[in-house]
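S1.2 Input.
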Amino acid sequence: MPSALAAAPLPDRAAVGTPAEQERAARLEHPPTGRWPHALSHDPLMRLSDVLAIVQSEFPALSPSKLRFLDAQGLVVPQRTASGYRQYSPADVERLRFVLREQRDHFRPLTLIAERLAALDSGEAREAVLPHEVGEEQSPWITATELARLAGVGDDLVASLAAEGVIEPGMPGRYRREAIAVVHAAAGYLAAGGDVRAARVLRNAAAREAAQAKAVAAPIRARGEQGEADNAAGELGEAAARLFGAVVRQGVQRY
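S1.3 Output.
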């Protein structure tokens, strides 16, 4: 008579191990497709300027050049229109927030962040999609005190930058919210050894390039293609910034 033990079926491998191990095995057996976060929409609904408007309140130093850099590094890769302009999805925005949090809160280099994202993409790792507080619409105008607080600097620095014309109020006692990134960058420049007067020279040169970019985009805007005009101006402005940066780095390396 055969042994009851010999007749017993072998345990299912999927049932072996802790619940966490079983869950991981299930994820590896049926890996998700596409890029994390998989549950959010990947429809390209937003322009680069829309993404900045959404994310800059949480990350004031975020700039168009930073977005383009993350795209070039393969970390946050938006879709492109037929004209080559970037279009972002809600999933791209959450992926961007993840990258920026990893840099700001954990000081992780991009290589480690890329490895983490690859694990999230494949389903080998998991990361919760954090909720974001939705409040009243923010005013585009802020006081000097608010500007200093949001940029993480002292009131005296904001006053100094204003006195030298590095930043200018758009109305009495009020600055546009976009000045946060300028003040943040200026603070870094001064901390590295620059001075306020030199910052004004850089600001004036940048303003001329911005005016040129707007002039190039003006014919597109005149045709009623607002989004394409914004993208064209942004592309030329960022190209000018990259050229400026390359020239500065080259000069420093020769020193």
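S1.4 Remarks. The longest strand covers residues 86-88.
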